[in-house]
Amino acid sequence: MMFSTALVVLLHVVVGSEAMHAKSSTSPTLSYWHLNLPTTPIPDTLRELISPLSSEKTSELLDAIREGKKVSMAEPDPTPKLGRKGGPDSVASPAWPFYGTAADDKIIANPSVSDMFFHEKDLHTGTKLTLYSKLLKRSSPDSRSSPDSRVFFLPRRLAEAIPFSSDKLSVALEMLDISQGSDTALAMKQTLKGCEGPAISAESRYCATSLESMIDYTTSTLGTSSLNVLETNVPCKLKSQKYTITGISFQSKSGSKAVVCHSETYAYAVYYCHESQHITTARVSLKGEDGSSGEGVAVCHTDTSGWNPQHLAFKVLNLKPGGAPVCHFVPNGAVLWLPAH
Length: 341
Hints:
The protein is built from twelve helices and twelve strands. Strands 3, 4, 5, 6, 7, 8, 9, 10, 11 and 12 form a ten-stranded antiparallel sheet that branches. It has a two-stranded parallel ribbon with strand order 1-2. 26% of the residues lie in helices and 25% in strands. Pfam families: BURP.
């Protein structure tokens, strides 16, 4: 496919101008949420990623793509910024090492991630846990930055017009005006590799390139449109500190089914979602040594028999596959979907 270089359609310019106005029912993504999940509040983590593009603007961009014009998803600089806020400090959710069968060397070497694991017997009021604060705090958009410096979900029609596969990455890079070999391109390649990798045991997984597709995957997997969406958000000042569980406002029954979606690094918002069948979940109140307080979403995996014996959690908790449950907090940028009942 050949693309004209005479005109570059800068999506961030369009998004930036429309983001100055409140998101309304003209947003196809927001309309889709309300239509399919009428009783489910949108968590802030996802609300902030909804593109303000209207149906009309989405159609204009689709027409531009069909005409062979490039569509830039980031700021017009040599190294487009990535992440939820587009900044270098964004924390990528380690989706596969958290839930997968293997222990990733980079994750094993990262003490901030190892701090996230704890025993199920510790999930009660009064427990003190040392946690890496950055993995708990929701990354809100910086009010000092312009809207175009952030990454948004694309409306589904637009997302589906852009190839999302390793064998067509070069086509996508050219469409998005991203240089081969750039940090952005390498990050996209890594995300695609993970999305196309083998599934974890018998549990389904899916990489959502739009919020609409995330909704479809979740409702079909959980078999209902009556859902709760939970997120972790604990404001903090310290990099790492002790947190005390001060209350448990919700706890699911053992063996509950859920879907967890993790934010991935890409030119636009992409989430790796996977089914979890053998878990218990809890929403707990946390208070840090610095006086900060908020809510954390804890997940305990009750069946680890299929996990790799070298999984990081076993090393941290001195457990073996099939032994006591492995618990951790859902990190910032991720959301947990549960049937409302």
